[in-house]
Amino acid sequence: MKSHDSNTGLLLMNWEEWSQYDAVGLAQLVQKKQATPGELARQVVAGIAKVNPAINAVIEVFEDVVDQPLKDGTNPLGQFAGVPFLIKDIGPTLKGRKQEMGSLLMQGNVPAEDSFLTKKIRNAGLNIVGRTTTSELGMCGSAENPGVYISRNPWNLEYTTGGSSAGTGAIVATGAIPISYASDGGGSTRIPASINGNIGLKPSRGVFSAAPQGSDLISVTSTPGCNSRTVRDTAAFLDACRGGAAGEFMPYWFPAEPYRELIECEPPKLRIALSHEWGDYRATPHIIGELERAGRVLEGLGHFVEWHTPDVDFRTAYAASTANSITRFSAWLDRLVALKGHACPPADLIEPLNIKIWEAGLERRFAEMTKLAATFNQTSRGLGEFFDNWDVLLTPVTAQVTHKLGTLEFITLNEKISADEWFSNLWGLYPYMVFANICGIPAISLPMAMHENELPLGIQALSRQANDGLLLQLASQVERALDGKWNEGRRPSIHVSNR
Fold first, then answer.
1. Rounded distance, CA 454 to CA 284, Å?
2. I need a surface site. Which of 88, 208, 239, 272 has the fewest CB within 10 A?
3. What pLDDT digit, counting tens, does each position of 258-297 carry?
């Protein structure tokens, strides 16, 4: 199994063999004493060194836990048995490790404590070996501030990786690491999964905890997750890392059986609705064709598939989502700015559109909250009634083709438009994402399609609250039908197996 790399010396296996393993498979090697956590970590670091200069997805490698995988508390008896893992540079904190949030403002920021989820991740046996890139403060769908870094798509370096889990999406796609942390406040797990050709599940509310600094009252629309290349890795991550901390404001639920076991069973025959016309937004003809093609795959698996759109006031929901993002981001940026000793966001340290969002939030912060709650409730009830008649709702992840880096209409470097105009651009690009966040329902992006420009296109499946297991079952059924060959069996041009 040992292999030699000219730049890094002796490795556990050659890169082609390595890229065939998912995280569960690597854990099984350790459990069978055919590999050690240290060998896995060294191979991941060698993989990062091989691909990262081109894509700039990983900010930092923690060399001390490469050499000593159990140093920070990784549980060798956990389900993942020491498999390496990367953490997004915003979200769960690591005591004594930098968390800079893709921002010049937050350079050198070092949290004083581990998040509750950090402890869960380590107890699951995942060895956190480094940090991945994110857009500034997680707001934008692309990580491309030249003052911090520009992350590039491994399929085509001229294109965005998506965001805000930008680095995670890109590095998992390269084969350097099989699983990495992502989070989703409006599509930030599913969008990079779609753009880079990975699997990305946004779980239901009540699965992952935001303790101790957050809660489901504060982080109403955002939830942790991961990007992976196999359904069983995502299922195992949910099984191992879910659960609430002391003092949660809502119950944290558990399924009747572990998802790792559930996905081995075929799902029942499902009623699946295809949809892409939401409010003022429509997918392009090519994307509609790819959605129809995915529908035919599911029909071939025995499911009932038909076009049907939820009876929801989409326009009002988009307006409420804009107000929610503006007011919550503005209040959060206030806290970060004060932490750094500033009275307002410094123009030389914060991207211009994010300053405009902060300013807009000052005007709306209190007036909007009652209206937001009413609209979110109405939207959630409408989708809930839809799922009384349909098991799954299938959409594309995006309504438009993946854009190139530097496309100002979608990034927070834009100085020429207002906050509301910028959000309107985002809804036109990703109109199908935020509803899972509003309603607290599960949604998964599956790499079942391709854009006209030959970049991956995720197909999104949504279901009712707590039906995460059903989505994973369906995803696993599709994975078996495709013989594991997501993305039509293609790989990105930047990949560890390439010479």
1. 15
2. 239
3. 999 999 999 999 999 999 999 999 999 999 999 999 999 9
